[in-house]
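BUG-326 | component: ligand-complex export | severity: low

The export step for FO1 jobs runs without errors, but we want the raw record kept on the ticket for reference. Input record follows.
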Amino acid sequence: MNGSSSEKRSRVACLALSGGVGGAKLVVGLARVMDPVALLVVANTGDDFEHLGLHISPDIDTLTYTLAGLNHPKNGWGRADETWTFMAALEALGGETWFRLGDGDLATHVERTRRLNAGETLTAITADFCARLGVSTRVVPMSDDPVRTVAETPDGPLAFQHYFVRDRCQPVVKGFRFAGAAEARANPSFLEALADPGLSAVVICPSNPFISVDPILTLPEVRAGLAASPAPVIAVSPIVGGRAIKGPTAKMMRELGIPCTALAVARHYGDLLDGFVVDSEDEALADQVRELGVEVLVTKTVMESLEDRMSLARAVLDFAGRWRRP
Ligand code: FO1
């Protein structure tokens, strides 16, 4: 490898595709059981939106805060130990307070917005925030170009956060589209990592396939990059025993006419997958997933403790080893 060691790009051994809460749990486990510098996390930015004049990137922030140990342990978004002076003052002024912004979290949005307006890329800002928060795992936005998830409802299109937070997922959703995805450029670090001969696993984390993973897969070159990658592509099911672990995934799947099962998730990802990880509760589905031509790992996928996160991460990385060339 020519060039000085400082110019040598750090090799990526594991590439994780993730949305917010669910995916972040496995990402923390991966960062604990491997060299965190060799882990590259590609964050969904379809949930991003402009609000109160601020650019907000929920999944990037959930991943960064969780890796920094700053995340709110129950909400799964925002920071722990928050104060809410800004929200109370905004309320008193008649401002929009349906999207809760804690005082510490607000600093992230204000500073990100300032730097974006100064011409910096979301990638550069995210890397700097991670460094300042002591996060050695690399978190990159799936693209530096705008991609916005839109919920198609009987009353017309809804911006994602309006659907998900303001209207609390009450509207019936007929489908999602990702405005801007066709014109957006996937993050070069993402595409380079996919082609890295040292890559040993691509992990699709247990995030919502329809709102958190599909935006990433829809970007040009991503599916082709995954198919051509030397590493196996392994997804962890976010559905256990017909129940969505977190959030309105079950309601969404019902409205999208998709059975709320781990098998339906495997079918959704289709021929992208080399391997699929299901919870022990779904052992009975394993053979049907294998019929899709996908290897299956049955293990505990419900992550309550840090130990759960780490053992699932170890199990996934060992599973990926099945494809390692001799
Ligand atoms: N989700 C909510 O349900 N209610 C909120 O008030 C809320 C505020 C919020 C603030 C910052 C942030 O980064 C995320 C926030 N989220 C909130 C979560 C967010 O809508 C979700 O993380 C997603 O976009 C789905 O993954």
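Assignee comment: Attached the raw record above. Residues 2-320 form a domain with the Rossmann fold fold (CATH 3.40.50.10680).
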